[in-house]
Amino acid sequence: MAKALEKANSAAAATGFPALIEFEQDALVLPTLLRATGAYREVSVRDALMQRLERGLAPLATQAAYEALGSQQEAAPYDLLVAAAQTPSVNGIAQVGAIRGLAATRRAEAIDVLLPLVRYGGSSYAVRPFAVTALAGLGNYIDKPARTRIAETLVALLRDPRYQVAMAAVRGLATLQAIEAVAAIEQFARGRVHQEAVVARRAADTLRRAAQPAEKGQQKQLQELRAQLRRLEEEVQKLRAQTA
How many CA atoms lie within 13 A of 129 on its CB side? Predict the structure, then answer.
């Protein structure tokens, strides 16, 4: 039912969600229900999620609630998500939800919260790979200087002693379409076991393919500029001939 309401994207579904959030008690259903509400940016849905959090939820449901709150973007309870993202939890489950929610807000200032969490010792081993993935996802919605900071951090994480973190950085660079990181990813692949090297090489190939249209576009622009320059030179020559 929750999935059907999520796909419905209707006013009726938005109206029905707050009551479902308030009264659903099935521990297996609740996480799916709460996560589905992320498709609706409604004040009533946001408020219902926050009230249910205040009443207390199991870890998986808490994770889903934080993710759904982050999907509210500009209406998300940013300070709440920041506090939860920085607070260790049982097996990192709730904390991961807050980190994902924080990235889902698409706010540039979330970078300064997420960057410390991805670094060695910044959060638990269970949390760091998810924080890397969230940080990379956020990079697709912010300006170029901030995106560059994220890409540089992910490249540095290719050297992380935890392979889960390093592999998350590889995937994150592909998500970020960080073409400038191809050489670093290929170098990473040369020192890894076969399974990890395959993932890294695929990421590098994906980035290389993404770069090709950009290169073609630049070549086309260069050709157009050269053509314009030739026309200008011809006009100058004509003017000189007329004044001679």
Answer: 13
d(CA 169, CA 175): 10
Q: How many CA atoms are closer than 13 Å to the CA of 51, on its beta-carbon side?
A: 12
- With respect to residue 185, please indicate whether it lies within any of the assigned structural domains: no
- State the alpha helices, DSSP H only, in 40-92: 43-55, 59-70, 78-85
Asked if residue 13 belongs to a domain, the reply is yes
Q: Using an 8 Å Cβ cutoff, are 5 and 36 in contact?
A: yes
Based on the structure, what is the number of domains in the chain? 1
Rounded to two decimals, what is the model's pTM?
0.80
Structural domain of 41: 1-105
Residue-wise pLDDT tens digits, 164-223 = 999 999 999 999 888 998 999 999 999 888 888 898 988 888 888 877 665 555 556 666
